[in-house]
């Protein structure tokens, strides 16, 4: 990967109800979120008969108001003809249902559509027994586990409108014509399964005008973010999964289209250039995290929930504990998949033991 610096051609985001043109015929807007990460980016691509919208924001009162203002104002009241979903997370898929009900075509990967639809149809008043056992095995115990077991869990249906029945599947290598440009679909893994990213490489398509020295555009959702590392998590639905392995493989594979230094249009924060550099940083961040986990386990075997200090090197508050836990499990699962650690099942959870004496020197480290 090259060392092109990370730059932000647009220093300020659009304000509420506003949109900013980031390339000819492509508008960038933000919709609010009721959390620490307080916004999600959406992008509108001008079509002859309306707009293509990339992602939809969360289905909640302020989100609906903001999308309505965007459609009435910067989008000029023209219809949204299609919606492209980058992945199934609620801040990206929340308002899809209403747009589809108006007749918008839905484009999503099959896994993203199926996952979002499944989760909206599966509300729960209490965590499933498998979810409680997942936390216990990860090392959550005592009052924390009791509280989790009796608390209503997060439900997609609380902030995602009912999903439409029909969609058009996005697949690796598919070429789409959107907003007068040709986009190639490349799928990522790790943050969300079958996460769609769209890459437009041709300057002749108007992708380079006024946006810096690189060529092309990339609509990447949360697969590549400039200033934060997307959460990589394991969940009770697939407790033995290795999303970190998929994430690292995706970062290396996406470095090929990223080498052209497109203007990256991400799901959060500012558009940027320097995607290849950022991908290298993301790989290195997780490699260093794996080093720290191995060092901690060399001191003493411990469960995933006891690895927060090693992984994050900062205090983890109650609001962040859930995401921190699933990311900790992702790191131990990856090390287990590589054969670097092994589990010991105990009453207090799964303790992880190192199986290699020199992690940095092993061949497995090169593929981590």
Please explain how this structure is put together:
Helix content is 33%, strand content 21%. The protein has 368 residues and is of the alpha/beta class. Strands 1-2-3-4-5-6-7 form a seven-stranded mixed β-sheet. A five-stranded mixed β-sheet has the order 8-9-10-11-12. Helix 7 runs antiparallel to helix 8 (275-299). The longest helix is centred in the C-terminal third of the chain and has 25 residues, at 275-299. The two termini are 17 Å apart. The model is unreliable at 203-211 (pLDDT under 50).
Task: Give the termini distance in whole angstroms.
Answer: 17 Å
Strand content: 15-25%
Q: C-alpha Rg, in Å? A: 21 Å
Helix content: 25-40%
Strand order of the largest sheet: 1-2-3-4-5-6-7
Q: What pattern of helices and strands is seen along the backbone?
A: EEEEHEHHEHHHEEEEEHEHHHEEH
Name the overall outline. Answer: globular
Structural class: alpha/beta
Main beta-sheet strand count, sense and barrel state? 7 strands, mixed
Please count the helical segments: 11
């Amino acid at each position: 990967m090259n060392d092109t610096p990370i730059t932000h051609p647009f220093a300020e985001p659009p304000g509420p109800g506003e949109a900013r043109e980031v390339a000819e015929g492509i508008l960038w807007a933000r919709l609010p979120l009721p959390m620490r990460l307080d916004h999600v980016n959406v992008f509108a691509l001008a079509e002859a008969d309306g707009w293509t919208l990339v992602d939809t924001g969360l289905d909640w009162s302020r989100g609906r108001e903001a999308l309505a203002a965007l459609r009435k104002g910067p989008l000029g009241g023209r219809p949204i003809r299609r919606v492209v979903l980058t992945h199934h997370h609620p801040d990206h898929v929340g308002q899809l249902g209403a747009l589809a009900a108006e007749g918008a075509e839905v484009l999503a990967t099959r896994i993203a559509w199926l996952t979002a639809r499944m989760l909206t149809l599966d509300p729960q008043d209490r965590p499933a027994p498998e979810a409680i056992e997942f936390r216990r095995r990860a090392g959550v115990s005592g009052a924390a586990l009791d509280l989790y077991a009796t608390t209503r869990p997060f439900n997609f249906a609380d902030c995602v409108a009912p999903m439409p029945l029909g969609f058009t599947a996005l697949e690796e290598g598919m070429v789409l014509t959107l907003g007068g440009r040709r986009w190639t679909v490349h799928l990522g893994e790790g943050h969300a399964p079958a996460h769609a990213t769209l890459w437009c490489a041709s300057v002749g398509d108007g992708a380079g005008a006024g946006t810096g020295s690189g060529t092309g555009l990339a609509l990447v959702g949360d697969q590549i973010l400039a200033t934060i590392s997307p959460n990589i998590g394991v969940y009770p639905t697939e407790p033995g999964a290795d999303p970190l392995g998929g994430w690292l493989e995706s970062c290396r594979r996406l470095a090929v289209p990223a080498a052209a230094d497109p203007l990256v249009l991400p799901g959060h924060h500012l558009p940027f250039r320097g995607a290849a550099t950022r991908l290298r940083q993301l790989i290195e961040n997780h490699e260093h995290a794996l080093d720290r986990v191995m060092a901690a386990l060399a001191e003493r075997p411990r469960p995933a929930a006891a690895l927060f200090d090693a992984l994050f090197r900062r205090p983890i508050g109650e609001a962040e504990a859930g995401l921190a836990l699933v990311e900790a499990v992702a790191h131990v699962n990856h090390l287990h998949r590589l054969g670097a650690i092994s589990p010991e099942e105990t009453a207090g959870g799964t303790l992880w033991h190192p199986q290699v004496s020199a992690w940095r020197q092993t061949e497995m480290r090169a593929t981590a």
